[in-house]
Design a protein that fits this description.
By secondary structure, the protein is mostly helical. The chain has one domain: Globins (Globin-like, Orthogonal Bundle). Helix content is 73%, strand content 0%. It is built from six helices and no strands.
Length: 138
């Protein structure tokens, strides 16, 4: 499946009114299913939740601007190297992201929407992992 910007944007619009509840759900899901990654995060997640929400908004709003998206993702990948993130963490993060989006999107979450988000997250993983690995090797 390819990335369908219309499905990404319409499903994000359905999720957007829930704001910080989406990122709170994401972190709860992530830590419940992957308790070993909890140590990579600060005790209090308010600021981290805000940063995640801003990054998601940028990703969706700039979806048609490949250069900007790649630059943002490369920067995120480099920063995550300093937090101790590893490429093998990406599948767990993706599963929790999809779970959070599905939970809040309601009827806007269809199999096609999930496939499009999965494809988008594949690009996120590819770009961030490359930057993370390059930075860690640095």
């Amino acid at each position: 499946m390819t990335i369908d910007p219309t499905l990404i944007k319409s499903s994000f619009a359905a999720v957007e009114p829930h704001g910080s509840a989406v990122t709170a759900y994401f972190y709860t899901h992530l830590f419940e299913h992957n308790p070993d990654v909890r140590k990579l995060f600060a005790e209090h997640l308010n600021e981290q939740q805000d940063r995640l929400w801003a990054a998601l908004g940028t990703l969706v709003n700039k979806l048609d601007d490949t250069d900007t998206v790649v630059n943002v993702l490369q920067g995120l990948g480099r920063r995550h190297a300093g937090y101790g993130a590893l490429p093998e963490h990406f599948p767990a993060v993706g599963a929790s992201l999809l779970a959070a989006l599905a939970h809040f999107a309601g009827d806007a979450w269809t199999p096609e929407t999930e496939a499009s988000w999965t494809a988008l997250y594949g690009v996120v993983t590819e770009v961030m992992s490359a930057a993370l690995t390059e930075e860690a090797a640095g």
